[in-house]
Specification:
By secondary structure, the protein is mostly helical. It contains five helices and four strands, in the order αβαββαβαα.
Length: 233
């Protein structure tokens, strides 16, 4: 086989492979409750759109995205809540930072989750509406917002696991009962848990694109595996 033919064959293979992974990622989202489109398929799902066929638009847009270097082509209106408060404990060495009162340029990864899950912004409130389906009508919501329930965290986070704080080797050492991050610069933790710019965020434990473990968790709760990914007890 000539070198040119080999290169062509490799190119076709890589294109096919990239298509496979892209399809797999989409299939993951499509099979979760974060598929709020008309193609939603989770048994018993009560919140969805009666007319929006696009799946990704509820969070992302390829054009006219909200500008933020840590936000991937974000499309959902951010919450205007001024203060959420932070979890406090005399045994905690980390220093959580207030998530409220942010702008698009200062929003943390957790603000993306809160743009729906604090219950103050309509799920169908987009920065860039769909060209294919400009109208997105929501079912199972009040004014398009999440109803009261476990998915609606509200605007008081003082009784929720702390987020938006730096988790590095220094913190693990000072605490004495935390797992040292794989990379002290903050690239990741064990069991697939992640850090964002070296900080714990909602998406450190939750993967919005797949719910294989239930509740969009990155790893199983059985045996407290999720907790023990960070806490060495």
């Amino acid at each position: 086989m000539t070198t040119m033919l080999k290169r062509a064959s490799m190119g076709i293979f890589l294109l096919a492979l990239s298509g496979f992974f892209a399809g797999a990622a989409l299939a993951g989202v499509a099979a979760t409750k974060h598929n709020l489109s008309t193609s939603h398929s989770v048994t018993g799902q009560t919140i969805y759109s009666s007319d929006q066929t696009e799946i990704c638009i509820f969070c992302h847009t390829p054009h006219d995205a909200i500008k933020n270097n840590s936000i991937t082509l974000w499309n959902h209106t951010l919450s205007a809540v001024a203060t959420y408060g932070v979890y406090q404990s005399p045994t905690m060495n980390g220093t959580p930072t207030e998530l409220g009162g942010v702008t698009p340029s200062t929003a943390a990864a957790s603000n993306l989750c809160l743009s729906c899950h604090d219950g103050t912004v309509a799920i169908n409130s987009f920065n860039n509406a769909s060209n294919l389906n400009p109208t997105t009508t929501m079912v199972g919501t009040t004014g398009g917002m999440l109803p009261t329930g476990s998915t609606n965290l509200g605007n008081d986070l003082t009784n929720d696991h702390p987020v938006n704080f730096t988790y590095d080797t220094s913190l693990a050492t000072a605490d004495g009962s935390l797992v040292n991050p794989i990379d002290a610069s903050g690239s990741g933790l064990t069991n697939g848990l992640k850090l964002y710019s070296g900080k714990v965020q909602c998406a450190s434990c939750h993967d919005p694109h797949t719910s294989a473990q239930g509740a969009f968790l990155r790893t199983a709760m059985a045996g407290s595996q999720l907790c023990l990914s960070c806490h060495s007890k």
